[in-house]
Design a protein that fits this description.
With 754 residues, this protein is α+β, with helices and mostly antiparallel strands. Helix content is 16%, strand content 32%. The chain folds into two domains: 57-292 and 303-329, Transferase(Phosphotransferase) domain 1 (Transferase(Phosphotransferase), domain 1); 337-716, Methylamine Dehydrogenase, Chain H. It is built from twelve helices and 48 strands. Residues 717-736 have a biased composition (Gly residues).
Length: 754
């Protein structure tokens, strides 16, 4: 049967004519994941039928989510929702039919006619509280209550669209930890710890919906969803315009702490009896418009939600906006004095007496210095180890050496206006950093004077440091090892089997550098272990999957990440070259663009959305059995993590915060303040990893500052006491596994500031 042409600006040019046995008569609205049609049953009953867009119908994960939506909608009674009449989640184009409810959405009503009258508002409050009680009694959390998901019918408000709801007993994780929803109506915990969202989040959304109904705006109002997200987490709700007799109740619904919010039953109890004596609100009836037409084998040889009645906002408002909104969620960055760029004549080469060095370490004080005082740029730094000098480069300025004890600039090459600065390289007794021509320049580490030009691009990845040598790969796959001190080639030649090898790991203990290259079809990876001193290929294997070497472990074993085509990490692989055995370590969920660091057998994986997972790579098998602990850090985007003394892991956030995690307990134990630029929050386009050198941890921020804090006291980074943090178990050697944990309340939440 030919399809019925659609009308309007919908994602698809044509719509199906039938969903199951239901003839689709008109389009009621379109969202990011599907289209809602008006239809009729055999008896003439009007239905609203959601049909999934064709591209999503081929996605097994989305089908699972759609099945969950159907199950959630069926679990509630229908007295306060649009009851499910029929559904087929397994159809070629999955669909669900609910009873059609005539009437405008609350969003439409307020937009057309302004805020509700006090009596109407009380009745709406009672009706929505009753609806949430019914939904929660069915074991479902809605998670997306907002004005466009509330229908005003002549029998009271109806809550619709369970597209991102979650039954209490569901094992399905929403988009592997990504946030889905609408920022003005999301509770703080939905941003900070989305896997722990409970019924209280719906009560928070109720409060926000009531403010909108009473005033025409939200309690956290801004043209920018970024600012709204920040306000939801940190600011007090704006209740001006809410009737006095409801303001206190609405304010409690909007409490930051979920435990401080009333339950739906408590909301209803506070409204009796006036809400039931209020005149019923009977909105004008809306009529639909007519249709206008497994183990890794070694190879031998080398959401967003769709609104059931009203047309949804553009799809871009969903996942992309929320991913960006996460960058503002939890404010925090460094302590200490703030100094302007200072010059120096280079006394950093002197050798301190052991007694003096020990005394300085014992009285370490935090410090902060601005390497750039205008514009927005994030410095990138490196250090040769505990007590060694710190070398930093920053866009718009140049390279500098900093005294790690006090932050004083020992020398600087400020005449080099860098672009896309990368971390300086300390190799062979010289410091290599970008020069004015975009090539690496060698500096005297003590005096800061340029000693030679290298002719090698300073772009990230162009030169790979491997001990005292730099490995440079030319087009065609030829590898040249340059002596870090002299720049003379130690060896040069092609790497057999490779077209364009990518060096990403150097093991100092063995002197091996590891190169990898994915096959064009993405089904295998060629891995080669190269002796960095001689260029000899020690071993070479082709392994199944898109793999990247990240660390060594055990007796010469290699640990690699396994990625799918969507750049999601779906497992780890531990390869023993002598035995030619590869073991796959399964993960409990996939991670977006993760950064990985290892300590012994323990791997710590930080996903793009702030999900931190600890895995024991010494334990084989699928199904997440190797999991040690997991933690939702609340960071929208994090740098590569680094490990420091005391079993702590450090990483930076895009707003300049530095965060510390106890890897034994799996607990967030400290964070610094967000760094301000010109009195405004700024966000890094690139996110360099912090530097951990002894007890000192150095962070950088988009305001151009470099700051150092005491790694032994992360709980006091912004005024909290030592050891602040949550309780937990699990971690290397602990013998236990902690459940998915929220950000501990004991960790100081620093207000923004410099």
């Amino acid at each position: 049967m030919p399809p019925l042409p659609g009308a309007g600006a919908h994602p698809e040019a044509e719509f199906p004519e039938y969903a199951g046995t239901y003839r689709l008569e008109a389009c009621l609205g379109s969202g990011g994941m599907g289209v809602v049609h008006l239809a009729r049953s055999a008896s003439g009953l009007q239905l609203a039928v959601k049909v999934v867009h064709r591209p999503y119908a081929a996605d097994p994960e989305f089908r699972a989510r759609f099945r969950q939506e159907v199950a959630a909608a069926r679990r509630v009674s229908g007295a306060f929702t649009a009851p499910v009449v029929d559904a087929d989640p397994e159809a070629v184009r999955p669909w669900m039919a609910t009873l059609y409810v005539p009437g405008p959405t609350l969003a439409e009503q307020v937009k057309r006619n302004g805020p509700l009258a006090p009596a109407e508002l009380r009745r709406l409050t009672a009706g929505l509280a009753e609806a949430l009680r019914d939904i929660h009694r069915a074991g479902v959390i809605h998670r997306d209550l907002k004005p466009s998901n509330v229908l005003l019918s002549d029998t009271g408000p109806k809550v619709i669209d369970f597209g991102i709801s979650r039954p209490y007993d569901s094992d399905l994780r929403t988009e592997t930890g990504k946030l889905i929803g609408s920022p003005p109506y999301m509770a703080p915990e939905q941003f900070q710890r989305p896997r722990e969202v409970g019924p209280a989040a719906d009560v928070f959304a109720l409060g926000a919906v009531l403010v909108h109904a009473a005033t025409g705006r939200g309690p956290f109002d801004s043209d920018s969803p970024y600012i709204v997200a920040y306000q939801v987490v940190h600011d007090e709700a704006d209740l001006s315009g809410v009737p006095e007799d409801l303001a206190e109740l609405v304010g409690r619904c909007l409490a930051k702490d979920p435990a401080a919010r009333p339950t739906p039953d408590e909301v209803m109890a506070e409204l009796r009896p006036p809400s039931y004596e209020a005149a019923a609100f009977i909105p004008a009836q809306r009529r639909p418009a007519a249709v206008t037409v497994v183990p890794v084998a070694e190879r031998e040889g080398a959401e967003d939600a769709t609104h059931v009645r009203a047309a949804a906002p553009p799809a871009r408002r969903g996942r992309l906006v929320l991913a960006a909104a996460l960058l503002l969620l939890v404010a925090g960055a460094g302590a200490g004095g703030f100094a302007l760029w200072g010059g120096g004549d280079g006394d950093g080469g002197s050798v301190e007496a052991p007694e003096r060095k020990a005394a300085k370490e014992a009285v370490f004080s935090p410090w902060s210095i601005a390497l750039r005082t205008s514009g927005s740029a994030t410095p990138v730094c490196t250090s040769a180890g505990a007590g060694a000098a710190l070398y930093c480069a920053v866009d718009g300025s140049g390279t500098a050496r900093i005294d790690p004890a006090n932050g004083r600039v020992l020398w600087s090459d400020r005449n080099t206006a860098l672009r896309d600065a990368s971390a300086p390289i300390v190799s062979g007794g010289v410091v290599l950093s970008a020069g004015p021509d975009g090539k690496l320049r060698a500096y005297d580490p003590v005096k800061g004077a340029p000693v030679r030009e290298t002719g090698v691009s300073a772009s990230p990845g162009s030169a790979f440091p491997a001990g005292s040598a730099l490995l440079v790969v030319a087009d065609g796959g030829t590898v040249t090892a340059l002596d870090g001190t002299s720049g003379v080639a130690r060896w040069k030649g092609p790497l057999t089997g490779h077209v364009r090898p990518d060096f990403g790991l150097y093991d100092e203990a063995s002197g091996l550098a590891y190169a990898s290259e994915h096959s064009p079809d993405g089904v295998s990876t060629l891995v080669t272990a190269v002796d960095a001193a001689t260029g000899r290929a020690v071993w070479q294997r082709r392994l199944d999957g898109m793999l990247t070497p990240v660390s060594t472990a055990g007796a010469g074993e290699l640990v690699l990440t396994s990625m799918n085509r969507d750049a999601e990490l779906d497992g780890l692989v531990r390869y023993a070259p002598d035995a030619r055995e590869a073991t796959r370590i399964g993960l409990p969920f996939r991670l977006d663009e993760p950064q990985v660091v290892m300590a012994g057998d323990a791997a710590y994986l930080l996903g793009r959305g702030g999900s931190l997972l600890a895995v024991d790579t010494g334990v084989g098998g699928e199904g997440g059995k190797a999991e040690l602990w997991r933690l939702e850090t609340g960071v929208g985007r994090g740098s590569a993590p680094v490990l420091g003394e005391g079993g702590r892991l450090y990483f930076s956030a895009a707003d300049g915060r530095l965060l510390a995690v106890d890897t034994v307990r799996g607990a967030l134990v400290g964070q610094t303040r967000a760094r301000l630029s010109g009195g405004k929050l700024t966000y890094a386009s690139v996110l360099p990893a912090p530097v951990a050198a002894g007890r000192m941890v150095v962070g950088t921020a988009p305001d151009g500052s470099v700051f150092a804090v005491d790694g032994r006291e992360p709980g006091g980074w912004c005024g909290g006491g030592p050891g602040a943090g949550g309780r937990g178990s699990g971690g290397p050697g602990s013998g236990g596994r902690a459940p998915w944990r929220r950000v501990p309340l004991g960790v100081p939440r620093c207000p923004p500031g410099a």
